[in-house]
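Practice problem: predict the structure.
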Amino acid sequence: MPNWIVGCDVGGTFTDFCAKEVSTGRGVVHKRPSTPDDPSRAILSGLRELTELHGISPSDISRFAHGTTVATNALLQRKGARVAVVTTKGFRDLLEIGRQTRPLIYDLQADAPPTLAGRSLRFEIAERIGPEGQVITDLTEAAIAGLIAEIGAAEGIEAIAVCLIFSFLNPAHEERIAAALREAFPGIFVTVSSEVQPEFREYERFSTTLINAFLQPEVTRYMNRLQAEVRSVAPEADFGIFQSSGGLMKVERASQLPVRTALSGPAAGAVGASGAGALSNMGDVITLDIGGTSTDVCLIRDGKTALASTRDISGFRIRLPMVDIHTVGAGGGSIAQIGTDGLMKVGPESAGAVPGPACYGRGGTLPTVSDANVLLGRLPRELAGGGMTIDRGRAIAAIRPLAETLGVSLERAALGIIGIVTANMTRAIRVVSIEKGYDPRRFALMPFGGAGGLHAADVALALGMKRIIVPRAPGILCAEGLILADLQEDFVANCRTAIAGDLSVVQTELDALDARAAEWFATEAGAATDRQMILSFDMRYMGQNYELSVEVWTGASAPACPDVDALRAAFLAEYSRSYGHADPDAPVEMVNIRLRATARLAQAETSNTHAEPDTLPFQEVDVWFTDQGAQSTPMYRRAGLPAGTVIAGPAIITQLDSTTVVPPGAEIRVDEALNMIMELSNV
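Answer:
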C-alpha cells in the first residue's frame, strides 16, 4: 500500500525534497541544484535520486505535493500568453487607469508596467449590468457575433479574459460570452472574472483575471507535462499543487486558476514554519526564509499565518486570499556593488543558480552575500551534504575589488555586505509586524531556507528579538510545509449590508456558500480524514474605503451567521488591534463573506529518532563577528546533537541543508522536538 508523502519546492538555487513515511514517521530530505531553464528537469532527477538514496520504492509514494515558481517567473519576466480582453463598452482602458497611483511616489520618471494586454487586444461589447445586478443593457447575439469576428481577425491570441462590469453580482452575460468564445475558439483558453475573483472593485478584479489568462497556457502545459513525468516515476501518487493561500489543490484546478500559485513556494514555507513552531509550543513566530535570490518574511500568530487579500507582484495587482508574505531582494546570491553615489549596495540583483556566487566555482565573479560569509569564516567548506565544495580563494578574489574601492580591509568589506543585507531583511520584518500593529519583540524569529541560520542572529539583534527557533531541516522547510498541507478551497460572496437589525440576507448567502463547499468536499476531498470550514466577514466602518477581514466562526457543520452584537464585538476587537483605537458607536457594515473549506489529508507523525550522539566540535575555525578581529569558533554537526544539548556561543552548527551561526553571548539548546532554540542575552 502506498505509504510515502513527498514534497518538492523549486527555488532559485536549489530544488528541495522532503519525504515522510506515514506508518512510521520516518523522514528524509534531499537537495539538488535547480534548472531554471526547465524546472521539471531538477524535479524529476531529484525525485529519482531521493528514492534511490533512501531506498523508497516509487510505487509506495501516495502523494506528491509541489510548490512552483512557474507563475511567479512568468510574471516577473512577462513570458506568458498573448491575451485578449473582453469588457463592457466604455471600460477598455480601465486596466491602464488602475488606481492612478505612481509605482514610486517620489520618482516622477517611473512608470507603471505596461498592461499584459495591449490596447489593440482589448475589445468592448455592448452590454451593461447595474449595481444591483439588474440588466441595464441587454447582451444581444449580434453583439456576441461581432465580438467573435473581431477576435478572430486578431493574430496569435492564446487566451481571452472576460471582465464585465458588476459581473460579480450577475455573471449571466459573462457566462454567455465565455460559452460562445469557447465554441468559436476551442484551442484558446478563456478566463471569466466571475469565476476567478467574484468581488467588487473593478480594477483589482480585471487585473487578477487578466493575470490568470496570461499565465494559463504556460502553467497548464507545465502542470500537465510534470504530472505525466511524475507519474512515470511514482505511478500511484496523487499530485497536488500548493496555492498562495496556504493549501493544496488538484492539478486541474491549478490549470484553471494558475493565478492562485503566484506565491506557491514561499507560502509553503509559512505552513512548514507553523508546524515546526507547534512542535515546540511556539505559536507566535516571525519567519525569515532566506534563499539564493530573495528573503521572504511572514508573521504567524497563535499558529495561524497572516493572510492578505491584495498583493502586487512585479507591479501587477492580484486580489485573492494569500499568505501575507513580504519579499525583498536579499539572499545568498545578492550582488554587492558600489552605486553612483559611491556607497555600497547589496541586491536586488542576484547571481542566482547560474553562475551563482563566486565561491561556488560555477563561473560567478561578482561579490555576493555568500562570498562575504565564506570570507568571514561562517560557512563550512562543503554544502548540501558534500554536493558542493566552497572555494574561499574565489570569494576573496570577488570581494577584493570592492574592498580596494572602499579603501577598507577584506573583512570590513564583507562585514559591510552582511550589515546592509541585514538592514534589508529587518525592514521586511517591520512591514509584516510593526506596520501591522505587532511588536516583533513578542515573537520568536524562525529562520529557514539555505541561508536563514547564517543571518538570524544579526536580524534578531537589530529588532530587539530575544529568541530564535531553528527547525530540524531549515533548508527544506518549504518542502516540509508541502507535505503538511491540507486540500483547501476558498469561496466568497459579495454581501454589502449594515451590521444592524435583520441579517437574514447574510444567512441566505451563507447557505449558498455552504452548498458550494459541500459540493467541493464531495468531488475533491474524498480521501480526506477530517473536514473544517472557517467563516470570515470583510467589515468596515460605513464611509471607509477599505475593510478588515474578521474571522467569526470555525467548524465542520453548516455555518450560521452570528448575531449583530457578536459581529460588532469581533470587528471592534480587530480594528483596535490593527489601529490602536475603535469607535464603539459608529455604524459598521460588511462587504464580503468568505468561507474557507479545508480537507485534512493523511499525515505522518513526526519521528524524533536521532543519529548516534556526537556533541563534540569537529573543527575550530576563525570567524569574524565584528570588525574587532576573528574569534576561534567550534563547528558542530547538527545530526549528532540530541535533545537536551546546550551549546554556548560562539559556535557554527552545520547540517545538510543549512548552517546556523551562534554569536558570542548567545546560547543554543536542542528541545524535545529536535528544534534548536537560541537565546540572545545581549538584546
